Amino acid sequence: MEKKNLIILTVLLLMVLFNGAALGAYSTYRCVIDQVGMKGGEVRVQLSEVSGKFDKKWFCCTRDVSKEMLAILLTASANDMVVRIRTDLQKGPEPEIVNSFILP
Q1: How confident is the model at residue 86 (pLDDT cuts 50, 70, 90)?
Q2: What is the pTM of this model?
Q3: Hey, where are the domains in the chain?
Q4: What is the CATH code for 2-102?
Q5: Concatenated DSSP letters of 3-45
């Protein structure tokens, strides 16, 4: 069952990773999940970067794959996993939009 869940998460991850967003200013960060939830119909997650680049910063998930991202986040959070995110921290005020979550 665990292997099946990992395969499903990998497929969902690939869908999120290749969502067609421009990759210009985006960077990848390794993060721990502090909180996950919904607010105003959006999936929101509070993350802290492992090396200290940011701490307890709120992010939104892209709307077109928000259900899939929520599944990844809840699974990762329940298993105390570190996730990698792809986002542009220079875009503007919080919450930033996360384009992909990657499980190690």
Answers
A1: confident
A2: 0.68
A3: 2-102
A4: 2.40.50.140
A5: HHHHHHHHHHHHHHHTS----SS-EEEEEEEEEEEEETTEEEE
